[in-house]
Amino acid sequence: MTSATRDKVTSEGTKILPFSSGEGREIYRHSAAHIMAHALKKLYPDVKLAIGPATSEGFYYDFDYDTNFTQDELIRIEEKMREIIKADNPFIRKELTRQEAMELFRHAGEPYKVELLDEIQDEIVSIYQEGDFVDLCRGPHLPSTGRIKAFKLLSIAGAYWRGDERNKMLQRIYGTAFDSKDELNEYLNYLEEIKKRDHRRLGKELDLFSISDDIGPGLVLWHPRGAIIRKTIEDFWRDEHYKAGYHLLFTPHIARLDLWKKSGHWDFYRENMYSPVDVEGQEYEIKPMNCPFHIHIYKSHLRSYKELPIRFAELGTVYRYERSGVLHGLLRVRGFTQDDAHIFCREEQIEDEIQRVLDFTLFILRTFGFDRYDIYLSTRPEKYVGTLDGWERATSALKQSLEAKGLLHNIKPGEGAFYGPKIDIEIKDSINRAWQCSTIQVDFSIPERFDITYRGSDGKEHRPIMIHRALMGSLERFFGVLIEHYSGSFPLWLSPVQAVVFSIAERHAGYVSSVAMKLRDEGLRVELNVDNEKIGYKVRQAIASRIPYILVAGDKEVEDNTINVRRRDGTNLGALSIQETSSILMDDLKNRR
RNA sequence: GCCACCGUAGCUCAGCUGGUAGAGCAGCUGAUUUGUAAUCAGCGGGUCGGGGGUUCGAAUCCCUUCGGUGGCUCCA
Q1: Which of A142, A201, A211, A586 has the CA that lies 20 to 30 A from A222?
Q2: CATH code for A205-486?
Q3: Any bridge partners for residue A285, and if so which?
Q4: Is the pTM for the entire model greater than 0.90?
């Protein structure tokens, strides 16, 4: 990377920053956003400018304009941008007083810029000029427009002014810019790769699940192949929970509205809950969470301090109202199953329990091939229940557990649940995208609302602390993430069909069927295909449906009592005995590969 | 919910400025008996998302409604 040409101009002078640095890239892309705004002003003089920052993957600019931009117009805008880049206009910084700047932008008919200036505290502000285009901007920028080597405009979307839905909807144009054509192409290929692994597309192609208009948006139908994957995940989850000292529960899907009033959900979570249903004059509510049920099981008899911690876990299906615009495949739905658990413990046990949960979570995630993650600690939101003191203690318990485990984390201020602070784990998938699934939340308030207690060693009543946690979050979302992570090529233990056995000609049908039978006896999910088709055709079909092992028998194999073994990735292991083949597959299964 | 775009066969899509629907794959039938990413031929399949309107005539134009997509806001 030739850093000498990636200068940025600051008020203190010129600094050299490579594109590869985060800051350098941001300046580069922010400059590209200015050029896009300039191009728009040239093409549509009446357009009003809002804001245009760089993002992690590119940049955008928000505009107010009375007619809507179309995809075709992006090409025109790009052409205009190329002209501006070719002109190689220098970016010139000017400083003026806030009043002068307001005059300037009021005169230029830029109400959004005036509004921004209204809220800036500083008396001196900076503007950047490039050619005949001036924008209010803190900077810095590239030395000149000609420094942009490669860019592309990607999409148009609506966006509220200042992100507030009460404000006017503006038009946002997204684009990206790179230091070279090659890097841009690499990024565009990455976008293609994302499309190829889209779980909605693969879900249909591989016949895993569907969401039907007739059933309702955000409600998932698990097809046989998806259901077997879910069943495998659930079995693993249940086994590991028993091993980790959890008790498994089942609870109903609806409960009296009063329960939700008592728990605080009706006051703090109503916008995500459905309207109550009438049952013989009593109001009942579909559950948006599982915790009140688990609390009632806790409360079903007197608890001793010796029993704690009590760990209740359930694959609990909940229903939450989500606004139609936010639904997205399996990743955002209205009905989903949480791998939920509630741990009741004494206050001095919190840290130890949270550390156990952290270990357990990371173990489960690693099993699915997620070994990179970011951890966040979310603190008290504006709407909350409980006392400030309780929040303080809960937050520090989470923080100390993370520190004890040596887990680096960032703080998300105000992002906690209404009943307590939480730790969120964002996993990184095979192409490095982040997904949030796991969450661990401390709750000092619900135990109080339901007045749950335990008998201490002193013979007195004490209040337990409750920890809510979900490791995969929801089975639906986790499944969606898994599909994208593996790009549909699930490891053998999760694959709906683990191997398929093909015959070369009809005369081998009996033999391959006996091979399939033997492998099925081992508990493997094996399909048989004796269709009257060429072997290339059958292999193609098997690869398209991501079957891990392709087993083929012709005259040779029948003669030697073997089977030819080929992996999904194209490696051919040659003719092996049925025994050898079975042990290769069983080995993958045992090691969850 | 908001803004934009989209909705044609099981799937992917074509159908220009209105003259009542087409391809590939998949499916079915037959021929072929095949050695690791597509054998050939024939056949069946659509109230063009739903409703309403304009028109002699609507997949095509208008309104409305339901879905989907990209974002915004919100979240497992």
Answers
A1: A586
A2: 3.30.930.10
A3: A255
A4: yes
